[in-house]
Amino acid sequence: MRKIVIAGNWKMYKTQSEALEFLQGFTSQLSETPDDREIVLCVPFTDLSALSKNLHGGRVKLGAQNIHWEDSGAYTGEISGSMLTELGVRYVVVGHSERRQYFGETDATVNQRLLAAQGHGLTPILCVGETKQQRDAGETEAVIKAQLDKGLVAVDQANLVVAYEPIWAIGTGDTCASEEANRVIGVIRQQLTYPDASIQYGGSVKPGNIDEIMAQPEIDGALVGGASLEPDSFGRIVNYLV
Ligand code: 13P
User: How many domains does one find in the chain?
Assistant: First the structure.
């Protein structure tokens, strides 16, 4: 059975006190949310401890935004899997396009991080997607296939979420048409050896387009940036209408 996973990616937003304020406004909106929807907040490392204490292992699962492949060592500025699991973290975003673009993340390091996450019992959310230039050149499928081929070496696909995030749709308000997102996600599913993996769409997901996105048959969830920062907005997204 394909699991529905709606995840907020807060990126580098919210101090600890802001995170707790968000939680107060958000949890009150979950009373009617169907149980089969997994709700995840992928937050800055500095918010994990406070959120973990206040989530009480409840409805909302905790996610991080990066993980190092070693368990410990001289890697200034990095965070290991055991540091995350001790705080109750269950998910971790790996290979987000912002990390690939600004922090030198490659398919090889993505693969190492995915393996480390799984080794610690975390479910990684692997982000893939093409630039506008690659799309215009007709390279979308080839780019994504290469990201999957290199990123997923030896990865257990039964404990994996894939997020299709076309880079040109991130933070731009320029959502990929839901039929096109559905088509590309179908192509991604064909590349997987475990076809029941959850595959999300990400890129300018908003309260106004979530119902249409989730109505697409191949789309199992969403990875939400800007619209996950406000309780009302993310509340409407997790309570999408079928
Ligand atoms: P936006 O929802 O702000 O476009 O960000 C998408 C994203 O990058 C989620 O990981």
Answer: 1
Helix axes 231-238, 16-27, angle to 10 degrees: 50
Q: Judging by DSSP bridges, how do beta strands 221-224 and 89-94 pair with one another?
A: unpaired
Q: What is the pTM of this model?
A: 0.97
Distance, CA 72 to ligand 1 centroid (Å)? 30
Instruction: Average the pLDDT over 46-50 and give the result.
Output: 98
Model confidence pLDDT, tens digit, residues 83-134: 999 999 999 999 999 999 999 999 999 999 999 999 999 999 999 999 999 9
38, 68, 96, 130: the catalytic one is 96
- Which residue range is the domain that position 108 belongs to? 4-238
CA nearest to 205, candidates 183, 179, 226, 184: 226
Report the b/e string of 167-176 with b at 16+ CB within 10 A.
bbbbeeeebb
Ligand 1 atom 7, closest CA: 225
Q: How far is the CA of 73 from the centre of ligand 1 (A)?
A: 31
Query: Which amino acid is residue 134, in one-letter code?
Result: Q
Atom of ligand 1 nearest to the CA of 173: 4
Task: Kindly tell me the burial class for residue 102, based on how many C-beta atoms sit within 10 Å of its own C-beta (0-12, 13-18, 19 or more).
Answer: exposed
CATH number of the domain within which 153 lies: 3.20.20.70
